[in-house]
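Minutes, methods subgroup
Present: GH (chair), OT, SY

1. OT presented the first of two proteins processed in the latest run. Sequence and structure tokens recorded below as shown on screen.
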Amino acid sequence: MKTKKITITLAILAFLTVVFSFTNSRNIDTGKELTTFQWKNLKVLPQTISEDSLKGLMRGYNEALGVKCSYCHASDATTKKMDFASDDKKEKGFARHMILMTREINAKNFNWENSKNPELINVVTCTMCHRGNESPTKSLDDTAPLEIKSATQEAAKK
């Protein structure tokens, strides 16, 4: 009789554990409050991007161009902090254009749908041209063969 009560009690506890694990699984404590935050002034990146993904993407841009955040983002004159929503710097507009350009190149030139291993496709990235420099032409000047440098210099003269 005592064993039967213990078995029933354990079965009920197991059942409740399973039920509660499914109902609470959407509210994982990551240390950050879950919100439906809307980013300010995102024009080419999705509004649904997570904070971690956005920061990782921006760090990637920093590394690819060898710059810091202040290269594209203006600071607020009153608070002396970065104003990430501001469009005061022309470099931010250039960056948006370059993001759209690389997206278009990758979409038009790589066969994602028919690839057996799309994760192995080497896509065009900022690093491919910039190589840690603000200007991709500086990277070209540093690494290009002599024939390409000559052709580039001739084209620049025209």
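2. SY then presented the second protein from the same run.
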Amino acid sequence: MNFRKTFAVKAAGLTALLTLCYAVAGTTLPHPAHAHASDASSAAFASPRHFGQTDGAALYQAICQGCHMPDAKGATGAGTYPALASNANLEAAGYPVAMVVHGQKAMPPIGEFLDDDQVAAVVNYVRTHFGNHYTDTVTAADVKAAR
């Protein structure tokens, strides 16, 4: 297997997915060259390899809601995006951590674009919002162990 070619294909696919997510959300994917450190919305894309948001809600809004929808109820159209709202699968904290870090089927592995604290933040946000009431907190150490 050619690692560079495989990596380039994954990166291109993720860029296409993020562009689609932004289009669904009604915004455009900012170009990194236009990001200004003082502009909070542009700072999220200051690095093309890492999301800048640190808050779980902001990460959900920037990454997840394009497919899972703002209300986390999922969608069906060009694909099927499962609901995260009132989702019993989220009870086991390791499940959403593994999904974010490693991906599965149509869910791309987003973990390479997030640090351990960011993964923990977005997982904790989803597990405590949208009708989910799972209060056992995921830590950065939990995410590091799952990588």
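Chair's summary of item 2: Helices lie at 3-25, 40-43, 56-68, 94-102, 116-128, 140-146.
Next meeting: continue with the remaining queue.
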